[in-house]
């Protein structure tokens, strides 16, 4: 697998990361290096080996269905650049 | 019956698949302890997890897994004892995490099937592809301010079940029947309240068209439809739009479209250039969701009787028609009401009273069953009065009318108005004699072979007794007298 400039630009756009034109080529090279290392893992024979889901021997914790949180509007919107009557106010989203 | 669109180049078949988002009935959210209740003040039911504050970690709500498994069993589906939570990445103002925690390649519930009920008691099987658990996003209000959108995160993190169907439906009616059936099943199970107005059930509708016998065409998806009526309108509009494009030599673009109920049309929501690439990957904050057979069996043992089983029982054990049985089981509350009325009574008579008189009155007055002035116990008592001969069926309808208006008990109304059926043979015989004496020509015609006139005499006698004469007793005396 190899990334070209266009793919890097697309991924950057999807991640909302701004990359200027002159940085696209070096970024593609860096990412291709990483992909190359990851691809080396494909050389290991994993036939009959169960996928590892965690490095710790533990299971997903389940909590009881009780209301134990919430009820602090002020804290939730405290850092919002703009707010109105308890709402976050953001620039108009046009559908 | 499938819907056929007659185009200039021949007939077109409509293919429909649905994704239903059903809010899991639970007190708290999927990954946080804030309340999942509807209608609170903005951002008052938001934890730092729901607001995606840095460093916060999700903790899984056990109710969600119980409800998903229960729903899966109700959909006759395969339950996956191992499933995985993934991140579905996209940016939107009401999605603070920048991703939705969902399930992608390994959902909690796999393939299943349900039976949908169509007109005339006809049924069809529709395949279920999967059911997975996911978080809801927050809510954006676009119409509160001219230049800002307001965001309320109360819904952010509320547990949803996304139920995906196979593309098995062929008409708007079948799609409507499917939504109604899913709604009925989750309401029986108590896993979702099915309230479409409050958004606790909404549907994404996939529509494509094809010439009969050909492979599937390109589909368009209409998102977040929250009424069965709008869904049917959207399907009809969209299918015709696609046929027009194809017949003009064009191609249908696979895209998300919005149905505008005011204009009665669909329009493109996102252009192809911006087509979503969700870049799913397993959520590193969450371990796989695992449980054993004992967990499933415990839930299975606790399942209520579901609408299809109830319908079969009503038909086989109670002798109801498939149509009546279907009407009575569609809503859980109706089935409960009917069963309370029919308990220890004639099932068919009970069904007739519930479907005929009760529904008739509820429809006319625009009342829901829960608001009915006549409760199941009261209707049962009325039926008892018919059964033991105290009043005739005809008088019972008058009594019901009054019960519905005043909420009084049947026996009290019968007593107050003196509606008790007359079974006294002496009084009835006197009335019969009067009727016969007053209609000598009709008597002659009857005796000359015009049997149909018997009904006329019955009617006259009932009229003379203000409808209170016991029809069985009248027949027993009238017949020999007329026959001479």
The two chains with the largest interface, and their residue counts, are: A-B, 35 and 52 residues
Strand content of chain A: 5-15%
Terminal CA distance of chain A reads 36 Å
Number of domains of chain B: 3
What is the approximate shape of chain B?
elongated
The number of E-state strands of chain A comes to: 3
- Poorly predicted segments of chain B: none
What sort of overall outline of chain A do the alpha carbons produce when their principal axes are compared? flat
Mean pLDDT reading of chain A: 90
Could you give a short account of the major beta sheet of chain B?
Answer: 9 strands, mixed
Query: Sheet bearing the most strands of chain A, described?
Result: 2 strands, antiparallel
N-end to C-end Cα span of chain B: 57 Å
Structure overview:
The complex is a heterodimer of chains A (95) and B (484). Chain A is α+β, with helices and mostly antiparallel strands and 95 residues long. Chain A is built from three helices and three strands, in the order H-H-E-H-E-E. A two-stranded antiparallel sheet of chain A has the order 2-3. In chain A, helix 1 crosses helix 2 (21-40). Chain A starts with a helix and ends with a strand. The longest helix of chain A is centred in the N-terminal third of the chain and has 20 residues, at 21-40. Chain A has a domain at 5-43. Chain B folds into three domains: 4-296, no CATH class; 305-417, no CATH class; 425-483, Arc Repressor Mutant, subunit A, CATH 1.10.10. Chain B contains 15 helices and 17 strands. Chain B has helices spanning 62-74, 172-189, 228-247, 293-301, 307-316, 322-329, 332-342, 347-365, 376-387, 393-406, 410-417, 425-438, 440-447, 453-464, 471-483; strands spanning 4-7, 10-23, 60-61, 82-83, 86-89, 99-102, 112-117, 123-135, 139-141, 148-152, 159-165, 201-210, 220-225, 256-260, 265-268, 281-282, 289-290. In chain B, strands 1, 2, 7, 8, 11, 12, 13, 14 and 15 form a nine-stranded mixed beta sheet that branches. Chains A and B meet through strand 1, helix 3 and strand 3 of A and strand 3, helix 1, strand 10 and strand 17 of B.
